[in-house]
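Form 7-S
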Amino acid sequence: MNKMQKLSVQVNALAKELANTLAAFRRDLHRHPELSFQEKRTSQAIRNLLSQSGIDFIPLEAETGVLGVIEGHATLDSSLVTALRGDIDALPIKEMTGLEYSSVHPQVMHACGHDGNTTMVLGAAIILSRLRASFGGVVKLIFQPGEETLRGAKSMIAQGVLDNPRVDRIYACHGWPGLTTGQIGVYPGRYMASAGRFEISVTSSGSHGAYPHQASDATLTACEIVQRLNCVVSRELSALDSAVLSVCTINGGEAFNIMPEKVIITGTIRCLNKDVEACLKAAIERVVEGVTKTNRCGGNLIIEDLVPSLCNSTSGVEAVQLAASRIMPSEAFALLPQPCMGSEDFSHYLQKVPEGAFIRVGVTPEGQHPIPLHSGKFNFDDQSLVTGSALLAQIVLDRHVP
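Output:
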């Protein structure tokens, strides 16, 4: 048995040894969820566990978020810096699991599994802290707030978490109901969509509902815009292009007999390809301008780019596959069959770091029906914490052991 094989055995043994500690920590986070950029208790809990494990952390400007650092004691020919990211925020969702550790906050819940994602990074950190004599270089532990707003990664990057020393590789694990517990999956290349938000304001002079001929109709115009936007993907893009254009809110008016002066429409666009994204934006602009002009209304369009598409590097995917081959059965690893149209602000890190990957960790117990993310009934299987912690630790060791 060579050096790396011995270390892999140690990684698995340490991960299993930590199972109860990790489960207890994850359940504590689940019981006390905090919304984006409000994660003060969560951040302090992370700092406490890092300190107890002998792991340093670097103070940040913001009140939420944590940056931990582990320096290996072995000597490398060249310094190497790997970052592991865990997202820490919860969602404004009412929990309906009935678990003994259900959220104590009535309308806040870890319905996306960030309690588990955070705990897997902490598990890997504890494993690496106990093996630091065996590896060199630096490991950064990024515990990021505000992922659900798609703004947290930018906030952490602006605070310099990728610098001094500069991060060479970055990885994140995220619980995934589509895989069973014990499985992990990764997609080579463009895996998740870019996300944009649009807001359309339709304005008119308004009128009494009994005299619609006396003014232009902002409500009718808004309805026509919604209808036209819902035709864009099916009629203006190739069926082979991956794109989503969804109108999600429409608001206007205060009385049943008064035609409003303003109606607001908001929605999202999701794409894997920049050219397709440009076509969607141009179509929205054309529809808003054309329909409002035809109906004698005013129109204003704002399109906000939130995150780029998430692209796993070839070397990053290979690193995940190698680590998985060392610590788990071959059937537990899968190359995911297709991209998804959800979005993740981890894409901002991958645009700035040359190597990395976003990894899916199965959280559905064998034989059970998957419960989707963002459901009030979702729960992260504690057994998955062992899998994700061991995998992240092994990814680091594969490159940091001299």
